[in-house]
Design a protein that fits this description.
The structure is a single chain. By secondary structure, this protein is mostly helical. The chain has one domain. 66% of the residues lie in helices and 2% in strands. It has a two-stranded antiparallel ribbon. β1 and β2 form a beta hairpin. It is globular, with a radius of gyration of 22 Å.
């Protein structure tokens, strides 16, 4: 890894951030591995009763909480908002009249950080999904229904590459939902790119009205779009408007990360965070529970209401990690391992889903034990690290001469780029 070795990362003040990123990446990987290869908790209970003398059953019960690792998506978005806004937050804290960032330079850095890895991952996904899986089917391996019917499409590839899969409509059951063309997992990266495009607006609002008002605005926008799903006539609204409901809750999550950066820049004071957090949690949980009580239709997508309280919890964890980043806990070996995984978390996100498709075809789905899922994780993690070494590692450095300074010239700058560059997120 060059400069970004495991011991050096552990000595870095922001090891806590990389460790959280590694935790999120592993959580998403394990959560998806469970959904691909494990039978599920209800079936597991029937096959392996909790009180039976069954070591494999006990193993399943021990690892069962890991199936909720897909909540790592929220952690990824909060970390992204924090990392993107951190330098600007520090600059504004030092000088409120400081010049704003150069937008062209920001977008160029983001493009170089995301797209080389994204293009390579899409190429790998195309080979695995549209070449390897059909070959395995011809050899007698049983494919999942989605894999068996999927066909390569250049237009779908273009939609995915341009991050438009959450904007263009996709017919499903008579309604329009965000599309998942080419490879399902990249819907989160599409949202990440949209957040980058909106960041200049977020920064402008922060400079004009303050970070707390920016967070309140993002919360209001998210709640407004979710509430509109309770109104019957919204089904006749344009598809673009409806698809914003998919985007709006995560915008609050991302802005919450930016707000944590503001709190850190001011000395980790909890100014304004508590009332906003409580308001978001109470409103979201209240409406979620009421929706279940009156049995609202599935199209309301009640799970999006959970985004707000989960985001608040994740933001609190991030803020705690920043306040305690010098604690010996962050220098422990398990945390250092998580921080190491956090460095290549983008690669792990980018390649794991298509690899799981191939592993599922080889091993078969819905096993009664979690061992195949854990085995798949053990295969994918080193493969993702190899992908990082070959592709992503080079995007941590800016090309010489682009910005008047060679960012790869010093270990400190490379380490800062490793810890604070957003990885583009992250799985469903």
């Amino acid at each position: 890894m060059g400069e970004a070795t495991l011991p050096k990362l552990a000595a870095n003040r922001l090891t806590s951030v990389d460790a959280l990123r590694g935790l999120a990446a592993l959580g998403v990987l394990v959560g998806h591995a469970y959904s691909f290869l494990w039978m599920g908790p209800r079936e597991h209970y029937q096959v392996h009763p909790p009180l039976s003398f069954d070591p494999l059953g006990w193993l399943g019960w021990i690892f069962m909480p890991l199936r909720y690792g897909v909540f790592g998506v929220e952690l990824f978005f909060v970390l992204s908002g924090y990392c993107i806004h951190r330098s600007q937050a520090k600059a504004l804290a030092a000088d409120p009249d400081a010049k704003s960032m150069k937008i062209g330079r920001f977008f160029l850095r983001r493009f170089f950080r995301i797209y080389p890895t994204y293009v390579a991952a899409l190429a790998l996904a195309g080979v695995l999904r549209y070449v390897v899986l059909p070959y395995m089917a011809s050899k007698g391996y049983a494919l999942d229904a989605e894999d068996a019917t999927s066909q390569h499409s250049w237009s779908n590839l273009g939609i995915t590459l341009s991050a438009m899969q959450n904007v263009l409509p996709f017919p499903s059951g008579g309604t329009y939902t965000p599309a998942f063309p080419y490879e399902r997992i990249y819907w989160t990266l599409s949202l990440e790119i949209h957040f980058y495009l909106l960041y200049p607006l977020v920064l402008l609002i922060i400079r004009k009205f303050g970070a707390a008002n920016m967070l309140v605005l993002s919360l209001a926008v998210g709640l407004l779009w979710n509430i509109l799903y309770f109104v019957p006539y919204t089904s006749n609204l344009p598809w673009f408007f409806l698809n914003l409901t998919f985007f709006a809750p995560y915008w609050f999550t991302w802005c919450l990360g930016a707000y944590v950066a503001e709190i850190e820049a001011e000395g980790c004071k909890f100014r304004g965070l508590t009332p906003i957090a409580v308001t978001a949690a109470v409103i979201a949980v209240g409406i979620y529970l009421v929706g279940h009580l009156i049995k609202l239709p599935d199209r309301v997508m009640l799970e999006y209401w959970l985004e707000y309280p989960v985001a608040v919890v994740v933001g609190a964890v991030l803020l705690w990690s920043l306040k305690s980043s010098g604690h010996r806990f962050w220098r422990s070996m398990p945390v250092r391992v998580l921080a190491f995984v956090g460095v290549f978390s983008f690669s792990l996100y980018a390649v794991h889903y298509s690899m799981l498709r191939v592993i599922r075809a080889y091993l078969g789905p819905h096993h009664s034990t979690v061992l195949p899922a854990l085995l798949a994780c053990a295969i994918i993690i080193p493969a993702a690290y190899l992908f990082f070494l070959l592709i992503e590692r080079w995007t941590l450095r800016s090309p010489e001469g682009w910005f008047g300074k060679r960012t790869g010239a010093s270990t400190e700058v490379v380490k800062k780029e490793t810890v604070c560059a957003s990885e583009g997120v992250k799985p469903e």
